[in-house]
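Dear support,

We are seeing what looks like truncated structure output for some complexes. This example has two components. We would appreciate it if you could run it in full and send us the complete token output so we can diff it against ours.
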Amino acid sequence: MRNSFARGPISGILVRPEERPLGRLSNVRWSLLLVALMLSVVGAATVHSASAEMPIDYLPRQAAWVGIGLLLLFVALSVDHQRLASFALPLYMASLALLGLVLVVGQVRGGSRGWFGLGAFAVQPSELAKFTTALMLARYLAGVEGEHLKLRQIAVAVLIVAAPVALVAIQPDLGGAAMYAPMLGAMLLVAGIKKRLLAVSLLLAVVGGGLAWTYGMQPYQRDRILTFLSPETDPQGAGYQVRQSKIAVGSGELLGKGYRQGTQSQLRFLPARHTDFIFAVLAEEWGFLGVAFVLGLYGVFLFGAAEVAVRARDRLGILLVVGLLATLGFHILYNSAMVVGLVPITGIPLPFLSYGGSFTMYAFAATGVFLGVDYRRYVNR
Amino acid sequence: MTTMLRSRERKEAMVGRVRLLSALVGVCLVLIASSYWMVQGIHGAEYREMAENNRLRRVPIKAPRGVLYDRESRPLAENVPSYNVSLDVRAARSLDHSLAFAADILDRSVDDLRRALAEQGDILGIRPARLAENLTLPQVARFQLAALEHPEFEIEVDQLRLYRHREQTAHLLGYLGEINQEELSRSGGEYLRGELLGRRGIESQYEKVVRGDNGERVLVVDSRGRRIEEQRTETARPGRDLQLTIDLDLQQAAFRQLEDKVGAVVALDPRDGEILAMASSPSYDPNIFARRLTGDAWRRLVEDPHHPLQNRAIQNAHSPGSTFKMFTAIAALEEGIASPGTRVFCGGSAVFYGRSFRCWKRAGHGSVDLHQALKQSCDVYFYTIGQRLGIDRIGAYAKKFGFGRLTGVDLAGEKQGLVPSQEWSQSVRKHPWYPGETISVSIGQGPLLVTPLQMAVAIAALANGGRLPPAHVAKPTGGPRAVDPDISADAWERVREGMRAVVMDWGTGNNAKVVEAPQFQIGGKTGTVQVVAQHTWMKPHELPWEKRDHAWFVSFAPVDDPQIVVVVFVEHGGSGSQAAAPIARAMYEEFLRKRPDLRDPGKA
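Here is the complete output from our reference environment:
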């Protein structure tokens, strides 16, 4: 699905802009949208299967979220990201305000006060903040001169991220707060960071993790990590989830049990099967075949989006794509690793597959930005 | 241009780092994909089995145990429904609330129930845990009335073994106990964990017959254990009912006679070895075992100095005392040592091997022949013929009558007793047989040990003319074992006549006579076994209980056509005529109540 218009290795500089005028929509890497839609269809079908024994069928709602997501995608595509970046600060501040507001008037779900209820739907301002924080960070880092970031500049970048992280952490949603880390890390890395600094920050991350373990974590969070390390100790808690998820995945074997035939998902053994563990349902019902297909689609999406960053010519575009993509990539890798029992369980949805409004909107909006950056790669530099 | 170039270089560096990140993501994707391959491709079959185990719940259907009936088809051991309540922790909205609710109904403390749950800790959250057993019907009703509000409680109906006659049939029937780990692994899956199996008595001996085969229901369940559908059902094969040879009336009569005493009563049919009654005292209530015995109750049973768990009819061997004299007599008649007319003078004692041996009657019996010696139980007479026989010939005849080996009765735990011989003395006691011991053995004292059942079988052989019947409670355990009937009819006749005189002609067994039925001819023999040697200076009732004599009474009736043998043994009961013979009379009275035709055979 490679765009026929883009020839050879693209390094922006070599392509003459006058030959590629703005306004040729065939210029856009539509394969990203196609893959996103394919994943959304697979996701909606799996959500339908997963909610078979649930009080309601989540398929219509998920379809609605995908529709809203597509709308956001075209909005994001139509707005020049340079222009969008000029509104980065007010957008960022507004997000922080919403994060503050949700602490007061938000609904409590899964133990944290992080949701605005809108009738049947509920949205997390944290996902919006992730988007605007990436924008804010991209704008700040794009304006930085020099080959490598200075310590002061890194500190500013960390502070930009620290504000929403703190607000999300006190909901309390430590998992959600941690999701800002891949974005920050990837953007700092791409913006330019000295190897020595990289080593120091990795060290800081380890020490910080240790401190968080000792002082920052709730007992249940510690339990989750411990039961990940030895799942048999807690058959009904987090260990139960890991175990049931692995049984679902493994019992799918090569070809799966068939659509809506998964005993683990249909008989309610899998918790959170329409959201965080949707991939286990897919693995059970479609087997390794389905897993490979979906991981392949994710691969196409991730590398395609990375290619957008590579062929973008403006620093802001590259950083924005990297920042938004880092979150999506981390979600994909972490969630699929979690479902097969490689990493501890935390509430991380899978983009386009998991049921959920906020993150679906984030994923489509981010895709819209990717397409927009790609679309304007000859204009912005 | 320089800024342009610098910007270009900077861009190239960024692109390089983006590619680095992409590569990292690619490696992670490959690693994750291979993990899925490991789980789904390599270990898929194992996980598929785990998913099946998740999905299917096997609910055992317990086979009802066979009912045990007496010979007149009156139930002795049967099954009654027992209601148990289980708690499904997953369905409970608040465990505290549920436990408080149950504690109120069950009249137990919340802590108590919490302990009951904690004991089953490993199954919590996987399937419902047993909270309490043997609920009363009002309790069941209260749980069921609250079913909507408290769906976490499940009432399960189980079969509870009921021994209707409790202590009266305890030793005979045995009881049920929970299977232990070793038996469980040895059974090869035939038994379920926590299942009850027969312990002791008939329940143990005929476990395979009365148990039946468990069935199984395989249900498809969801993660909360709720039943989705039934996959298949294997019905249980119920255990076979068993009719015993026991006559409940005789059994109850025997037990009533033994109450407050320590001892055993055996009644059997000498013609075929059917055991009509077998009672042992003290006894226990076998029903307490089926209701999960507490450690305390178990300790009380085990530590009781009178060993209530022991079936004294087959598990306690004692010296037979004077009841052995018939067998000494037969040996002497057969060996030509004595004839019916042989007379021995009894002066109250006699000297053998330089030691004086007393007759129980210190004044002496004067000159006695065999008939008188049996009737009066003259010790000196039997000392004299016993000495002439020698221990090995006495032993050989004792063995012919089944002493010293198992009767083969279909009850677990039988003891074989002991018949001494010179060879036994050398090999077991490591010293030679003392000739003086032969004198003791000839009147049933010394190292001669028999069980009440062995005695009953031997008396049956005396009664029916020499055939040792196969003693049994449920069914013949093989062909009749015949003793060598190489004993002259005359010897039988003499001994039987002597035994008849013991009871009917004012002999030592006079207390066994059924006064109301003077025509019912009983042959018997008393036995009094000294526990402490030579204590005649004290009156029996002045002695401490454990030093008093053991009392025996052996008998059969009617003498002309023997149909019942009654053997009574009372530990430390005193004399056979005072302590044991009246018990036998009570047995004969009960027997005659059912067989009025034998009351006065002349009329028939």
